[in-house]
Amino acid sequence: MSVKPPKQIEHIGIAVRSLEESVPFYTELLGLKLLGYETVESEKVRVAFLEIGETRLELLEATSPDSPIAQFIDKKGEGIHHIALQVDNSVERLQDLKEKGIRLIHEVPKPGAHGNLVAFLHPKSTNGVLLELCQPGKDEHHRNGE
Ligand code: CO
Domain spanning 8-143: which superfamily? Predict the structure, then answer.
C-alpha cells in the first residue's frame, strides 16, 4: 500500500481535572473559540474543543475514576495527553502499521468525538507520544452545530 502522510494535526489532547476550571483560561484569557462540549462514553471522558487556526485543542476530563484520563492524571498529573493526526483509510493504515511491528492500542478504529473514527498507537512504539489516528466522520461539516 502506498501510504499517504497524515493531512494535519487534527487536535492536541490535554488532560485536565476540571473543564469548568480550565476552559476559561483558553476562552477568556487566550480568546480561543469554544466549539462545544461532548461526552465520549467509550473513553469515559467529557471533552471541550477549542478552535485554533486549522486545528483544535481537546481538553479531556474524566467522567469516571477508571477513565484512561483519570489514570493518566493520577500517574503524571495534568498535561498533554495525545496528539491526533488526521488520516484517511484508518483501517488499512492500522493493518499496515501492525504488519510493520507497531504496537496498537486499538486494532480497529472506534467512534470518537464528532463522529470521527479514532484509534490510538501505543507510546512504546512512537517515542513515548500517544498518537491518535483520527479519520473524519460524516458530520465533519457540522462541527460547530452542537
Ligand atoms: Co483526541
Answer: 2,3-Dihydroxybiphenyl 1,2-Dioxygenase, domain 1 (3.10.180.10)
